Amino acid sequence: MKSRSASPASAGAEPPGVETGASGVLLTLSLGSAARTVMVKDTIDVAGVATRCGSRAYAHALPARRHAALVEGLLADGWRITGKTVLHELAFGTTGINHHDGTPVNPRWPDRIPGGSSSGSAAVVAAGLADAAIGTDTGGSVRVPAACCGIFGLKPTYGLVDRRGVAPSASSLDCVGPFARDMDTLTAVMTALVPGFAAVDAPAALRIGVPALAAADDVAAAFAAALAASGAQQAPVRLNLFDQAYDAGLALINAENWQAYAHLIDDPRLGADVAARLRKAGLTRPAEVAAAAAVREAFTAEVDAALAECDVLALPTLPAVPPRLDEAEDLAAQIGITRYVRPFNLSGHPALNLPLLTSAGLPAGLQLVAARGADARLCAIGREIAQRLAATAF
């Protein structure tokens, strides 16, 4: 894999050390000397380190010559980069299972998947190994692992965070986004990732739009209780194209990942689960891509109209609690875990996961979606609602 990028490596950085993947850490690093620590997904270039995208197929990749633009931003803002994190191979999976680099252990629910594809980034934050971590989200790959591991995770507005030095180099869906254990830290990371980003206050009276979506009973109950505890005014909204948007998002990610990784399809080092999904992705027809583009335009307008009437939309992040590891080996059967998150990659709206628990103490998530470009407002609303939930025994 060729390196991509922004500026030369920091002088005096310590050489990387290889870790086992179970912790979620792939490599330990020491870039910068600040107290605040952050790790980055191994689809993101760090100068002097090969970007291997969680795959043996890139075992002999050359070290990146320059930092990704976002790495430069983190260092300039006073973050210390302490590691690269494990991911679902090629960032093309929802479970986070990686038989080559090791599957990160979900720190609070070790029998359940950590979620993918940014599994390691979520796991290291949940385990307290870093103050924050950076992942990428093409179809839920920040929000799903954040919900699975019980932390906060943000998919920003499409195009808001500079993707130079991030694999794949071209995507109409992918967004770089942060994980943290609290909203203040997550907002602080955004100030490093986005020039001019600044915290704002939440509206005095919140109005939340709630689409009618069916989740598993335990998740639906946790979601309803969280909305009630938020104290916000609720209003039903209709997203008639929601299911079509999900299908369109799948068509586009398949077409674009085939373009990016088709050259690996006959490489015996490619994991069997990802190879099977990639081969299927290669069957995506041009007519499906064209139809997806039409759905994108119509669904984006539908979400824009709904958000003109409320501050945010609220949905469950996951349709059900995360499956156990022994249930999750069939990658194709687990793609539906992204049913409530993938449509907002298609539309480009910012979307935030707030951690929730079911009555049985299992992980769920409250997903908040805001207008495009209103990422600071979304973070403020997320912080306000998280505070209200923490203060209420819901």
From TrEMBL:
<dbReference type="InterPro" id="IPR023631">
    <property type="entry name" value="Amidase_dom"/>
</dbReference>
<dbReference type="Pfam" id="PF01425">
    <property type="entry name" value="Amidase"/>
</dbReference>
<protein>
    <submittedName>
        <fullName>Amidase</fullName>
    </submittedName>
</protein>
<dbReference type="GO" id="GO:0003824">
    <property type="term" value="F:catalytic activity"/>
</dbReference>
<dbReference type="InterPro" id="IPR000120">
    <property type="entry name" value="Amidase"/>
</dbReference>
<dbReference type="InterPro" id="IPR020556">
    <property type="entry name" value="Amidase_CS"/>
</dbReference>
<dbReference type="InterPro" id="IPR036928">
    <property type="entry name" value="AS_sf"/>
</dbReference>
<feature type="domain" description="Amidase">
    <location>
        <begin position="38"/>
        <end position="379"/>
    </location>
</feature>
